[in-house]
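hey m, so remember when u said the tokens were messed up on ur end? i reran from scratch. heres the input so u can diff it against urs
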Amino acid sequence: MVDRKRTSAELVLTAKGTADRLSKKAPLTFEPLSQPDELTPVVMVDPRKTFQTIEGIGGALTDSAAETWAKLPPERKKEVLTAYFDDEKGIGYSFCRTNIHSCDFSSDSYTYDDQAGDTELKNFSIDHDRKYRLPFIKAALATAKTPFKLFASPWSPPAWMKTNGDMLQGGKLKPELAETWARYYGRFVKAYEQEGIAIWGLTVQNEPLAKQTWESCIYTGEEERDFVRDHLGPALERDGLSRLKLMIWDHNRGTLYARAKAVYDDPEASKYVWGAAFHWYVGDHFDQVRQTYEAWPDKRLVFSEGCPELYDAKRINGWQWGEKYGLSMVMDLGNGTSAWTDWNVLLDERGGPNHVGNFCYAPIHANTKTGALTYMNSYYYIGHFSKFVRPGAKRISAVTDDDRLLATAFKNPDGRVAVVVLNLSDETVPFSFWIDGAAAKTTSPAHSIITLVY
């Protein structure tokens, strides 16, 4: 509740055409108001109405991010780590993703066992990751005051386990090697944990309906269901890894509900599955998120990847990139998503490295020749959530009466409430926060994002 005797609440602003980037502004003053009227736009928050628990917010610790970080001078390495993982000086990432062997954002295509026919995985080794990725993740964990949760995703089984004999260009898992592939996940988890890196969860397959020029593998909903039910779920259980949060889908929102139904409607498959992960490519489809959340309230949702567009240095300062993040985060979290994960946390001056040439944006780009860092406005938009919405927070009710404003709100474990207000319009909008019979007046600049903390 808002204490009507307490007159201030913290307000943080990022706005287009200004110098404000996660900038603390003058505290707001609350005055008693029994009910809002229709004369002034209002964001109404009800802390008593709670929804999903937030697992965390963050980004992906890929090979490309790790290699770029390794090429920076020491002071810039420290700056990147502080910017992302320090919740006081930076934006406090608390939930991250990494890849199981190579993905498109790796300098090369590789696996942890290239020996064809090695069904016992006797040659399994994560030595490839010791050069870049393991040091990067360990340094990030050492920077975070509270260790972030880390989940992992495969882009493809090794080529020798696939019908097309290639890690790239789709193909499918050979049925006779499903058991070997299922055990591969557990070997990865245990190898990383021997390095002191705890794995919180797994997705079954990155983008299982996309034949890509990079590492990819196709599963229909029924094939993913059967693989989880008959192989992956039992293998994790046998390995003593049933604590891992297993997520299906890991592809676009547009067919999230259908994929969830294909797996969840089978009780024997569903019992192994914690929830579903999804991406933002090919349309917004936020209603898919809401309806999946409502249809299976015992399952969880994770936004597991989003990248604005292919890299173009001339457009890196475009304000639309941050706004795409803001819209997705307000709508995904507001519709029941429990965690939100950006794609690469760091890329180089070309938007790579990348072994197939699909260079893209990251919230921070590093020039590996000069050491200079460029912060996209997406970094600040994400920070309006990750810095103030902490693991264990509960989403609470937040609604607006003005179509120019979008809002969502959370109550943190320490009792502090964070309300995020997004204005995508060309108009400056005066409005009030109304909470528990008290209101505070402020203004939302055109193309801005605000976080109120009280």
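this time it looks ok to me. The chain has a mean pLDDT of 97. if urs says something different then somethings off w ur setup not the seq
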